[in-house]
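Human: We require from you a standard protein entry with sequence in single-letter code and fold as tokens, and nothing else.

Assistant:
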Amino acid sequence: MIARISTLLQCTEDRLWRKLLEPKSLQYVASPVLSFAPAVKGALDGEWAEGKTYELNLYFLKVIPLGRHSIRLVTIDRERNAITSSESGLLAPVWNHSISFRQVGADRVSYTDEIEIRAGWLTPVIWLFAHLFYRHRQRRWKTLLKLIKASYP
């Protein structure tokens, strides 16, 4: 099943790219619903790297372990404003995530998360969770970008 969630963000493409490439942004936008701890210390330091696989421990509400989650960055395409990852975890063996965005006005970006989910009989439940979770993430993106703009206009 495919979940597709879109929103408008108050930022420029460049500002969004700077934050998208920071693994700590994932921690911020996912929190407090999900949190990720690197399986190998320091694995989330620096920027995301295309072709690299990140092994993470996944937690629900920061305390309930959901097992290992693997994120492989397939593409980071600055020309097309797109990032794709091939992900998998205990509850969702296939969780392929695509981010795409484009400038639609001064300081306005149209942003879309698209997630392919394959989790056997749990697929409809995980699909519903993905819709709720990515709406939460997108609200958190708006907050993060607003904080950044206030700090660095």
